[in-house]
Amino acid sequence: MGSQDRVLVLGATGGVGGEIARQLRAAGWPVRALRRGPAAAALDDGIEWQVGDAMQTEDVMAAARGCSVIVHAVNPPGYRRWSELVLPMLDNTIAAARAHGATVVLPGTVYNYGPDVFPLIAEDAPQRPLTRKGAIRVEMERRLEAAAASGALRVLILRCGDFFGPGVRNSWFSQGMLRPGRPVTQVQLPGPGVGHQYAYLPDVARCVLRLLARRAELPAFTRLHFGGHWDDDGSQLARAVQRVVVAHGGATPRLAPFGWWQVWLAAPFVTTLRELLEMRYLWRQPVQLDNRRLLALLGDEPHTPLDEAAATTLQALGCLPAAPPRAARSLRPLP
After folding, report:
1. Count of CB atoms within 10 A of residue 291's CB?
2. Rounded distance between C-alpha atoms, residue 88 and residue 182, angstroms
3. CA quadruple 201, 274, 11, 46: dihedral positive or negative?
4. Quick count: other Cβ atoms within 10 Å of Cβ 185?
5. Which residues belong to any copy of the NAD-dependent epimerase/dehydratase domain (predicted)?
6. Which of 69, 139, 176, 323 could share a disulfide with 172, CB 3.0–4.6 Å?
7. pLDDT by residue (tens digit) across 154-181?
8. Domains, the chain, ranges and CATH?
9. Distance, CA of 104 to CA of 186 (rounded, Å)
10. Could you tell me the pTM of the whole model?
11. What is the C-alpha separation between 304 and 228, in angstroms, rounded?
């Protein structure tokens, strides 16, 4: 790591950006982040917080001064106002990266793709999304690719499946499968019998660190797919939750189909539910990102065992009972 390897993380108060910021800091990177409100300067977490807003070009420009990397992990909360906010925020990041010759890191998703390229998706598969968010994601990548082609900046996109892990806010795991802050008595399955891909956030952050260490070897515009946890029948993450809850002294949570009909009824009145309903096509058939290029580059991929990842996430969500875990043998698969 050179003397100029300072990184700016936009979205460091969120789940994805926060985890990447913490791991960068722990690895010795000087980390700077934006936060709205004067309380930012009072935080004592090893991150250089600056008061600012990702929607303000001058704030992002000032924060990026002296940074060789900008992690763009900022999103409007609760899926609201995407069409108004997402692209202007990205344009500010691109402008700052151009001005300072920085590498832009974008945590990507499967929203870019439609069913025509399912079930196994390569990085260069055609992008024909079915949703508004998907179209915005495609436009984000188009703008980044055009900026990289100009030679003024570099881009690294790591596309991932559904995020789960400590700090993740907008996720199927914490918003659709169970209820945060309560003991787990039931886990809902959005796509029972259908394969689905999950990305455990600490593993994603570790992968970003490894890729940044080799960014000089990568093409100026690089897209890679993160494998994460492949749930081959749509129930494996839920069964891991069952095992973890039992190991912590709780009763086995029951598995139940997700209430899509309830979402359909309430969607006209709740923005987040409308967005969830728009994503239903991702649960009707297997959707898997092909990570062979990433494995060829790194040799392997950071991978936390599923039960351990589920336990850490449940603890962060306040869902585990206070009783200490039972012996490790209690983590055997449930019938």
Report:
1. 23
2. 37
3. negative
4. 13
5. 7-216
6. 176
7. 999 999 999 999 988 778 899 889 999 9
8. 7-166+196-230 (3.40.50.720), 172-194+231-284+305-331 (no CATH)
9. 40
10. 0.92
11. 9
